[in-house]
């Protein structure tokens, strides 16, 4: 090894793999994107992939409550995720899916599709391949990153927040677009979390070695700062 290459190898920080899990509305996407951008890491929104495959099922007339039909079609759509944290993208068979995957129809159907083992196997493989290709490292967010997708991640975070705080955050987002009723928003969040936590295959769960951060009383900036500090501590350990 030449002196220059040897010095570069010694000074460049090793790729860091971070998994951020937690229930809906706890701040996973906002935190993960900002942390990845600050530290020069890639960013992967695995929820967007589950939403994308759900959108494809709905668009192709597949009954999302028919697990056998969903399983049979699991390998058909091509899902591509762009991992630039300042402009993440998601396409299905080459079509931009960023808008359609955020509709109420997809949100209501996604837990049923994501409970199908064949769907999880397919997306877990894709997620691991994306993480393996991230040169400086990656922040991957979802529900089963610490437990199943990346069990050897350098740092695992499990974000939580009260259902009231999460509903208030979501209602703020939806204002002027769809229903803004706080109680209905909270009920929908709780229902989706229950479905995600209750499925047999890789449910929403905190990994034993994850750091839990309750974001209820924290601003987004405080959560970002907390996660950046945890990553820096791991890197220097
Ligand atoms: N600590 C915080 N304080 C106030 N608002 C926050 C905080 N964290 C996130 N938010 C806001 O809450 C909303 C939900 O955040 P975000 O989409 O990041 O959550 P999420 O955990 O990724 O949700 P989901 O799992 O449903 O995709 C966003 O409008 C975001 O700006
Ligand atoms: N690792 C993951 C990520 C997501 N899901 C499922 O996708 C739904 C949508 O996720 P959002 O983060 O976009 O809200 C979520 O409710 C889960 O059903 C998953 O199973 N595993």
Question: Would you mind describing this structure in some detail?
Answer:
The protein is an alpha/beta fold and 237 residues long. It has one domain: P-loop containing nucleotide triphosphate hydrolases (Rossmann fold), CATH 3.40.50.300. The protein has helices at 3-11, 28-39, 46-59, 67-73, 104-114, 117-132, 145-149, 163-174, 182-198, 220-236; strands spanning 16-21, 42-45, 79-82, 89-92, 95-96, 137-142, 155-160, 211-214. The strands form 2 sheets. A 5-stranded parallel sheet has the order 2-6-1-7-8, sandwiched between helices. β4 (89-92) and β5 (95-96) form a beta hairpin. α2 (28-39) packs across α10 (220-236), α3 (46-59) crosses α5 (104-114) and α5 runs parallel beside α9. The longest helix is centred in the C-terminal third of the chain and has 17 residues, at 182-198. The model is unreliable at 1-9 (pLDDT under 50). The ligand Nc1ccn([C@@H]2O[C@H](COP(=O)(O)O)[C@@H](O)[C@H]2O)c(=O)n1 is lined by residues 24, 46-48, 50-51, 110-111, 114, 142-144, 192, 196. Adenosine-5'-triphosphate (ATP) is lined by residues 22, 24-30, 47, 169, 173, 215, 218-220, 223. It catalyses: dCMP + ATP = dCDP + ADP; CMP + ATP = CDP + ADP. InterPro entries: Cytidylate_kin, Cytidylate_kinase_dom, P-loop_NTPase. Its main location: cytoplasm.
């Amino acid at each position: 090894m030449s002196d220059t290459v040897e010095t570069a190898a010694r000074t460049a920080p090793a790729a860091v793999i971070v998994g951020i899990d937690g229930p809906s509305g706890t701040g996973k996407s906002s935190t993960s994107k900002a942390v990845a951008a600050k530290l020069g890491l890639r960013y992967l929104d695995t929820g967007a992939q589950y939403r994308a495959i759900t959108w494809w099922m709905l668009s192709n007339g597949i009954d999302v409550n028919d697990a056998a039909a969903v399983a049979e079609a699991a390998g058909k759509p091509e899902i591509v995720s762009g991992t630039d944290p300042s402009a993440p993208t998601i396409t299905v068979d080459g079509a931009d899916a960023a808008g359609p995957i955020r509709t109420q129809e997809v949100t209501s159907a996604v837990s049923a599709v994501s409970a199908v083992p064949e769907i999880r196997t397919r997306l877990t493989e894709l997620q691991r391949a994306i993480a393996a290709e991230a040169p400086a490292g990656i922040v991957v967010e979802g529900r089963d990153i610490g437990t199943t997708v990346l069990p050897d991640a350098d740092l695992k975070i499990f974000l939580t927040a009260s259902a009231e705080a999460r509903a208030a955050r979501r209602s703020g987002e939806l204002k002027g677009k769809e229903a803004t009723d706080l109680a209905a928003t909270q009920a929908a969040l709780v229902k989706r979390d229950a479905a995600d936590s209750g499925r047999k295959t890789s449910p929403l769960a905190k990994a034993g070695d994850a750091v839990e951060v309750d974001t209820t009383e924290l601003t987004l900036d405080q959560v970002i700062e907390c996660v950046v500090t945890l990553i820096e501590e791991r890197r220097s350990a």
